[in-house]
Amino acid sequence: MPLIPEEPQIHESAQGPRATPASGRTAPTPRPVPGPRPAAPSRPGRPGPPRPAPPVQRAPRDVAVAKPGPSGPAAPAASAQAVAPPQIQLIPASPEGALDAAEEAVDLLLDSGRAPGDVLVVTTGEQHPWAAHELSFGEASYWAQHDAGDDVFYADASVVDRAASRPVVVVAVNGGADTAATALPLALGQASALLIVCGDPQQINSVLGAGV
User: Fold this and answer.
1) What are phi and psi of 167, to 5 degrees?
2) What angle do helix axes 201-208 and 177-190 make, rounded to 10 degrees?
3) Whole-prediction pTM
4) Cα–Cα distance for residue pair 81/60, rounded to 1 Å
5) Cα 194 from Cα 85, distance rounded (Å)
6) Tens digit of pLDDT for each residue in 177-195?
């Protein structure tokens, strides 16, 4: 008889502690795991913002209606800028000193931040030494450098109409009165921002006008 009651007590005590820690441990582990998992779907559940998105789409429609309104007056403004002629600067110089004055003007342009490819130099008399040197290798090589557009380009007045327009054109009136009379208007048309003319002021004014 004493052995019988001891056995059920031993079985009960063994089952008791084993069941409680096992159940206690298992219960917390599944609970925290699903905890973060539903938190993740809660982030995609933020489709709340896409719901206000339809009004955002309506807003651009309203903006699109407003855009054509100002675009109307903006177009004439752009056309006015395109029609605006370039500024003209006159540097008094003799035919013998016009080329040196043009070189100084180019140096000042580059020092002020102008890109070399923005500048075209035109001579009305003797060719610039650079142009004469490059032409000695053939016109193909010469015009290839013009097309590259990454450096100052020197051209004779006879080919100024072949050169592409550049923001700044510098003309050295170093001879050829008749040539200058033809080249100056062409150079003015090739300059999109600034035309610098180095030469006799009276001669230049007679061609470009007294407003120079």
Assistant:
1) -55, -40
2) 60
3) 0.61
4) 30
5) 9
6) 899 999 999 999 999 999 9
